[in-house]
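Input (structure):
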């Protein structure tokens, strides 16, 4: 949005539920599959419609809802252009787009002034700090992460720090960690202010992302900018 404003364009931002396809605009760009995307796809107006799905769950096969998959393909079939986060996602989206509908690859933007390596940091007594940043929801595959870390239970040189704003599976993950005897190894930090996230990355040695469905989450780029290696599932853009 800042780029459009800097070039003299006016931009209006709507939540999906507040959006009407009758808006007076030269172009409408809808992010995510929601009621706004469906409203724009089914509209009879002639405003060019660009769709960015941010949805790796359908691409990876994790999405089980027939209605969600059908709505996804319908919105794409009505779009005048699409935006993908990776080449892999672009190839997938093109299978649903019209033959002459453009699909541009534009990764999520990340502020490089906030995420950078700490060249002076020394490893703390050989202890490895593993970092997870995301939501505590089923698609993130966190039960597999806890089970995998249980294989390292006898190794004293690691800890896991978890940063999240959605705590849906918090108690389930704590119970799973307790069964493995890992509760003292895992820090459930919860939500962390955006201004502090650069420090959180610089205090870590490794980012882990065991997701079952992703497009290309910003945490991957943030980790790379911070100089961290990444262990992630081999799906879609990852």
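Output (sequence):
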């Amino acid at each position: 949005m800042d780029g459009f404003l800097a070039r003299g364009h006016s931009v209006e931002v709507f939540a999906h539920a507040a959006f009407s396809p009758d808006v007076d605009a030269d172009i409408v760009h809808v992010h995510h599959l929601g009621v706004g995307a469906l409203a724009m796809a089914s509209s009879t107006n002639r405003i060019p419609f660009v769709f960015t799905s941010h949805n790796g769950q359908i691409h990876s096969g994790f999405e089980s809802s027939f209605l969600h998959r059908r709505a996804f393909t319908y919105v794409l079939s009505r779009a005048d252009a699409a935006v993908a986060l990776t080449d892999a996602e672009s190839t997938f989206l093109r299978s649903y787009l019209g033959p002459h509908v453009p699909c541009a690859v534009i990764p999520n933007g990340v502020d490089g002034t906030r995420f950078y390596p700490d060249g002076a940091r020394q490893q703390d007594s050989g202890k490895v700090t593993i970092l997870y940043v995301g939501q505590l929801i089923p698609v993130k595959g966190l039960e597999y992460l806890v089970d995998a870390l249980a294989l390292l239970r006898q190794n004293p040189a690691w800890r896991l720090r978890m940063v999240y704003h959605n705590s849906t599976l918090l108690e389930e993950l704590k119970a799973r960690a307790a069964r493995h005897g890992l509760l003292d190894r895992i820090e459930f930090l919860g939500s962390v202010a955006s201004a502090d996230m650069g420090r959180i990355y610089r205090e870590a040695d490794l980012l882990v992302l065991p997701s079952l469905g992703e497009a290309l989450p910003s945490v991957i780029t943030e980790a790379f900018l911070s100089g961290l290696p990444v262990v992630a599932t081999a799906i879609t853009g990852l």
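Notes: DSSP finds nine helices and nine strands in the chain. The longest strand covers residues 128-133.
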